[in-house]
Specification:
Helix content is 29%, strand content 18%. By secondary structure, the protein is of the alpha+beta class. The longest helix is centred in the middle third of the chain and has 21 residues. The chain binds guanosine-5'-monophosphate and zinc ion. The site of zinc ion has 6 residues, from helix 1.
Length: 139
């Protein structure tokens, strides 16, 4: 399904022009309009899925192999030292466009292009409880 009110549906399906890096039947890969670093790309499925929770498994299975190829290509093209793969779900997690997308961001040593998380503290008993709680839901 496509959503005519969704900017990424319109871009992914070619109704709004974009700097396209790659396209196949399932995805369009574009340059981010406000890049964290030069070469910052977005993998967009052509179908509308708001987030990872809606993404069908068959589409999900194709995302990481594509990300792997793009990461290698952008590393070479931009002479990068590293690459971040980022994917936000929900406003609480920083998602601003509610159409699933994966960011691929080439990095140079010391570029400060994107802040990562602030490392917190962990309590061993609490860690064990959390691991058990999540683990139960995986069965
Ligand atoms: P999010 O915060 O949802 O994970 O990321 C959304 C990303 O989409 C942002 O990095 C933003 O710069 C990018 N973006 C938003 N609108 C457009 C657009 O119209 N064209 C392109 N190429 N990127 C966009
Ligand atoms: Zn959409």
């Amino acid at each position: 399904m496509k959503d005519d009110n969704c900017i990424f549906c319109l871009i992914a399906n070619g109704q709004i022009p974009s700097n396209t890096v790659y396209e196949d039947g399932d995805f369009r890969v574009i340059l981010d309009i406000s890049p964290a670093a030069k070469g910052h790309m977005l993998i967009l499925p052509k179908e509308h899925y708001a987030n990872i929770f809606e993404l069908p498994e068959e589409t999900a299975k194709k995302v990481l192999p594509l990300a792997k190829k793009l990461a290698a290509a952008v590393k070479e093209a931009m002479n990068a030292d590293g690459v971040n793969i980022v994917q936000n779900n929900g406003t609480a997690a920083g998602q601003t466009v509610p159409h699933f997308h994966l960011h691929i961001i080439p990095r140079k040593e010391g570029d400060n292009a994107m802040p990562l998380w602030t490392p917190g503290e962990s309590v061993p008993e609490e860690q064990a409880q959390i691991a058990e709680k999540i683990s139960k839901l995986m069965k």
